[in-house]
Write a structure and sequence with these properties.
This protein is about 35% helix and about 20% strand. It is of the alpha/beta class. About 40% of the residues are buried. The radius of gyration is 25 Å and the shape is globular. The two termini are about 45 Å apart. Catalyzes the first step in the biosynthesis of NAD from nicotinic acid, the ATP-dependent synthesis of beta-nicotinate D-ribonucleotide from nicotinate and 5-phospho-D-ribose 1-phosphate.
Amino acid sequence: MQIRDGSASTALLTDQYELTMLAAALADGSAQRRCTFEVFARRLPHGRRYGVVAGTGRLLEALTRFRFGAEELAIAEKFLDPATVEWLREYRFTGDIDGYAEGELYFPGSPILTVRGSFAECVVLETLVLSIFNHDSAIASAAARMVSAAAGRRMIEMGSRRTHELAAPSSSRAAYLAGFDATSNLEAVRSFGVPGAGTSAHAFTLLHSGADGEHEAAAFRSQVEALGIGTTLLVDTFDITRGVATAIEVAGPELGGVRIDSGELGVLARQVRDQLDALGATGTRIVVSGDLDEYAIAALRAEPVDVYGVGTSLVTGSGAPTAGMVFKLVEVDGIPVAKRSSHKESRGGAKKAVRLARATGTIVEEIVYPAAGEAPSTNGFQVRELQVPLVRGGETVDGVATLARSRELVAQGLVSLPWEGLKLSDGEPAIPTTFLG
């Protein structure tokens, strides 16, 4: 499946048991019962105080391509009866979906997505929904912590080589949504409009070595001639002090930036800043990369770093590669149903949610209540409903948050957290979630 191929079906991005359940439900007549499914996370990853909803835009696009054509049916008919195969041939989701806008924060139990329709048309979407939301929300949640730790400094996502090739663009998108400024991944530039960034690697400097030795100056000169004086030169291939001196000798004091990719980054950043300033390159930025995560970024906050490049930790969720979300049936023909398995309980009935905030904008509580019930008392706090319409009658509604708007929502959400909610240390969720009914 190609990322940009608008005709490529998403129907087989699923688990076989979704379709065998469908077959059984069609056979016993329960397939058309009206159902409500909810997506939520029972808990946040260890040490996390909030999550970021990401993947909504990708899901809505993928839903338009959830169709069973000849190739998909050729797989399905290997294990399904003919009646079920024919049902899949005509499949179109015709139900409704509500959810938290992409970019909203979420907490344990937040009803992030509500899917309504027949059992048959909803259940087959479970794996697609969870694979997108669990991946993208994990990346966005880690990225938001890194953005907070960076305290306004430029952030570049460069993790493509550390993840699956088809996961890399969606990782870039999720990082951008959470506040990163650019990506090295060109498919993300093409598919999602994320700004691109990148200059050179150590291989380019080594390329200019010869039998007579290293020619770092030649590599720098070539790069500047090709990319302009605003480029960033990688100065730690050999000796970093000599590399900085050579960079300014070749490019002059108007050089855009130098990048440090190894060593004690804090110590080196201070040394490089002092050296650049002494050479008159006071405006030359310092870019650091190399196994950074939110903790390393926070530790560098007092150092003269202008730009962070983050790879492995970002695309692996910085230790939490999945958001732990589940897709659970909560209502059948208007009757609440709930799972009671130990440590995997669910709350029956369709739900809505509101978030309460002080006049200052600081959020204090999330309240989840029965969708058919009365909105809860606000006790003088500002109140905001969290679920918004996403799909009606199988069609995406107008006004769904764009990627640019989702970036704004993340930024606004981070500002709204109580100060302790931004801590990187272990602790409880930033705000409590209260369940009514």
